[in-house]
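CORE FACILITY INTAKE
Project code: CF-77B
Contact: R.S. (postdoc)
Sample description: multi-component assembly, two entities in total
Requested service: structural model of the whole complex
Turnaround: standard
Below are the sequence entries exactly as provided by the requester. Do not edit them.
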Amino acid sequence: MSDRGKGTFTSDPAEANARRAKKLSRRTLLKGAAAIAGAAAGSDAIRGFPTIWAQEIKDIELRHVGVSYSVVKAIGDQAAKDLGFKVTMQNLDTSAAINRFISQPNTVDIADLEGWQAKLAAKRSVIQGIEVKKIKEFDNILPIFTKGEIDGHKIPRQGISPYEAMYISKPDSTDLHDGVTEWATFLPQVYNADSIGYRPDLVGHEVTEWKDLIDPKFKGKAAILDVPAIGIMDAALCFESAGLIKYGNKGNMTKEEIDFTCNKLIELKKQGQFRATWTTFDQSVQLMAAGEVVIQSMWSPAVAAVRVKEIPCVYAPVNVKNGKEGYRGWCNGMGLMKHLSGKKLDAAYEYLNWYLSGWQGGFVARYGYYSPVPSTAKKFLTPAEWAFWYEGQPAPEVINDPYGVAMEKAGTKRDGGSFLDRVKNISCWNTLMDEAAYMNKRWNDFKVA
Amino acid sequence: MQPSQNPSRANLAGWLYVSPLVLVLVPFFVAPILVVLAASFFATDGFGGLTPGFTLASYFEVLHSALTLKLYLATIKFTVLTWAFTLIIGFFVAYFLVFHVRNQLLAIGLFLLCTVPFWTSNIIRMISWIPLLGKEGLINQALLATGVIRQPLEVLLFSDLAVVIAYVHQLTIFMIVPIFNSMARIDKKLIEAAIDAGASRFDIMRLIVVPMSKSGIALGTIFVVSIVMGDFFVVKVMSGGGSASVVSAFYEDVGVLQYPTAAASAVLLTLVLVAIISLILRTVDIRQEITR
């Protein structure tokens, strides 16, 4: 919400830059035709991309547009420094972002997409397929994304899993392809497993099940996320946990399931279960820190932000048990907008490759998010940070956040344990249901009840 | 200006007079409304794709849904409450400034003082209520400390009360200004004459001040009603997401790319607002009152 309007529209200069770059490339081609042609021809064979001359790329500007927790200015600044061209990060909320990709695709170069948004963007033909061969680290991307499995464990496909949204059969296909191809809709860059945050001092017991969120004990002290598409999944996890219903697919409910879920939410609201609902990161931190709620669905860095205020807060490890519980997974990736071509497209591929080369993976790890290529991220993390964030071991020393502020004391363990413990317990993914319009209507019934 | 003898030149002058307004209204009001109107008749594939055509399906859906009624009831409830409180406060503040502050310079000074809180953004003014009204906020702490209550009052924040408080705080100025303006033009001699003729203070208020401030009240009402009915952010934040409004509902529709239903809801809201405002204008002839 608060991010709305921050974005600056710089389409004209950027297009001018792109034109200039094209002109430059033509001139360069004439001058050193042989050398360039050779490099271009050989590029596929060496699985790289043609080296771009510094003087040609310095006028290029890439606009990376998306949500604030995924499109981070500090990361864009570092990329610009390492790559030598301009990178502008623009933040919007999820719904404003997808609306912009669809209605003004030419004002965006790199779209920040969740799996379901990648599906939509492909459907609306605003993105072009990413040629997998041009992504250097593609083979090192965890198979969660590329094959839909990890460590022999099949990644559940309730909701739209990143693997499900990952491939299209041809660069301009509008429908997703089930199974591995040479063309990707988006390149995963950051993801996590979401659950419940709670105040251990006020809740009184360890929370490992979603049903605690709807426990009458916490009447007037619970909150839920008010982004309909994901809020309803958190609610579904609660109701399934309490044994009230068994969903066919929480991520793609039938109308009957939506009715059941929303009616139950209305009933809970009338009983006074929810103190509030929240839409932004800050709101969830405020609710918890100001003592308004003791338990709520939450995001990992928000829990850390509460803890930094010296208020105890735990991120519940909701491991899958008896076919219930589990984390709600999400993943943001980068899509190439359809209008990218020539040098600008080459620069975009360089940018994508830079993302997976480790600096960004190290950065996001320091606030609890994961990189799809942990092997490169590891190089940018201290052994203590790696042990804490990825291996779930007690922190050997004080752990700092990405900006160098002390965040966790030595000896603390990450809630939920190691990377594998957490991601293998993801039971559903952020989504846009087939019945989204109906779901939205019923969610508004809940809001206005 | 001397009226021109040449009819075509007079015509041209007429067009020149209206052209600034037309230049603003056509691109910034008429065109967007037409786009929304067109979109409300289109069909959608559910993925943000619009099929140009003519279907009333979106209107049918909006008008056939109990949700629409509930949303309007919720929005109208906020509108009426906000209107009533801003009117009472705005009227008496203006009354005090015009009739009780003898020194005109002081009156204008106090009037300007009323606008001071409006120098900051209305978002800041709204969220600054949160630490005041919260469970661990100043009001609850004070009441707990003095022993008036034992449990913090939850109704203060994330409730309809909080929404109305924020609206009243934000919008009272829109009542004060026009009412002050119309009251200031009441001839003081009229009041003196009424006193001489033996009218009570209540009679003066009922028979002179209120009728002669009608245009200000009507203008203030138009501002307050159209702002509250067209807003969703205050409702969202101050109700803690616990309530919704007509606009918040179609904002969510846009979020899941249901453009035609969002457009139909927007057109419906525009019609409702036009009806309300023309009702106000029917009761009070603002043009006549202002040029009086």
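Facility notes:
- The longest helix of chain A spans residues 11-31.
- The domain at 51-192+330-385 of chain A is CATH 3.40.190.10 (D-Maltodextrin-Binding Protein; domain 2).
Invoice: internal transfer
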